[in-house]
């Protein structure tokens, strides 16, 4: 699998220069791309994280953290050369340098995965996280 293909979609919405920060017309022009929201590996893009700017993808189930799925999360992290940093929610960071490549939040009616778009294995990581975090009743 590859890194996320939605980079141009996200880039088209970013503030191109500080001088346009108060330009409503420029903002309205940039957000026209939101009329069609892409998906990756069948997971709908929700938008981007407020502070981190990473694309957010909806999982088709709610995530409730427990011993079993945090251990599974740590195993997936190892598969991808990462470790898990437990803050308000878990973040997967590369062992080599500590760059954050993913985060999984659980405080809504569905799980959300945030991914670094330039990470070479982002789509593969999204699919693996969806597999291992799925409640057993959803897997069947």
Describe the model.
- The two termini are 25 Å apart.
- This protein has a seven-stranded antiparallel beta sheet with strand order 1-2-3-7-6-5-4, covered by helices on one side.
- Helix 3 packs antiparallel against helix 4 (122-133).
- It contains five helices and seven strands.
- It has helices at 7-11, 24-30, 67-79, 122-133, 136-139, and strands at residues 39-40, 43-48, 55-58, 82-86, 90-94, 100-105, 112-115.
- The chain has one domain (7-139).
- The chain is an alpha+beta fold and 140 residues long.
Portion of residues in beta strands equals 15-25%
- What coarse outline follows from CA principal-axis ratios? globular
What is the spatial order of strands in the main beta sheet? 1-2-3-7-6-5-4
State Rg: 16 Å
One letter per element, helices H and strands E, the order comes to HHEEEHEEEEHH
Provide the helix percentage.
25-40%
Report how far the terminal alpha carbons are from each other: 25 Å
Assembly annotation:
single chain
* Poorly predicted regions: none
What labels would you give this structure?
140 residues; 7-stranded antiparallel sheet; alpha+beta; 29% helix; 5 helices
Summarize the structure.
This protein has helices at 7-11, 24-30, 67-79, 122-133, 136-139, and strands at 39-40, 43-48, 55-58, 82-86, 90-94, 100-105, 112-115. By secondary structure, the protein is α+β, with helices and mostly antiparallel strands. The protein is globular and about 50 Å long.
């Amino acid at each position: 699998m590859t890194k996320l293909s939605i980079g141009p979609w996200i880039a088209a919405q970013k503030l191109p220069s500080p001088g346009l920060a108060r330009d409503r017309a420029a903002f309205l022009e940039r957000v026209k791309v939101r009329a069609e929201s892409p998906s990756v590996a069948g997971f709908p893009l929700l938008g981007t994280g407020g502070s981190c700017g990473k694309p957010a993808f909806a999982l088709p189930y709610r995530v409730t953290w427990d011993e079993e799925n945090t251990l599974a999360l740590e195993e997936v992290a190892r598969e991808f050369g990462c470790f898990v940093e437990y803050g308000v929610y878990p973040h997967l960071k590369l062992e080599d340098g500590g760059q954050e490549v993913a985060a999984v939040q659980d405080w809504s009616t569905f799980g959300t995965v945030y991914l670094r778009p330039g990470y070479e294995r982002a789509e593969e990581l999204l699919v693996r996280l969806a597999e291992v975090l799925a409640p057993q009743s959803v897997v069947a």
